[in-house]
Write a structure and sequence with these properties.
By secondary structure, the protein is mainly α. It contains eight helices and no strands. α7 crosses α8.
Amino acid sequence: MSTAVRAASGTDLTDLPYVLRSAVTLGVITAAVVVALSFITRYLAGAAEFGLGAVVLVAGLAAVTFMPGNWTKPRTIEGIAGAAGLGLAATVVFMVIDVSVLQPTGMYTNRWREIGGGSNWWYHPVWWMVGTYLPWMGAQILASQARGGAVSIPKGMVTALVLTVVCWVLAVMVHFPGAGWNLGSFGVAFLPGVTLTAVLGAVSGRRS
């Protein structure tokens, strides 16, 4: 009964077929972002590579982080968990595309895979964790916004990007291992950036 009520209200949409269809869409989008970044890093250099790469990377992060929540319309833990599950399923879809198309064709360098000694058993679990964590945080942000008023994905993404830049700059300034003025470091800094956004949203949501 409660599931039917939530479906009728248009929130916490976690019907399994709907989640799986959405996961396929997100998995294909993820693969498209990886392919785009591959061509950018292969054929561009310098400011052009950084600028265009940043645009594609930010678009990809926004899609992975907020599209699952946009689809599940989270208001309670069910919608938030549904978005995280959707993200996990999307990483499985990407994995299939990755091992069947991207890796055999040498589409990108697989640096994560190389760090793990060339094994997908190290590389893909990292992808699964990140691909589940980001939608979880994104759904939490949207649910907090809903408690406080209107839901705005651009507002959530802008806040996350600002905090990401702060984390990125601090990491470089304190010489955090591996941190540098590059897109890789920016991408890693997005993890604490979006986490802080979710925490701030939860605190402000309770106050309102």
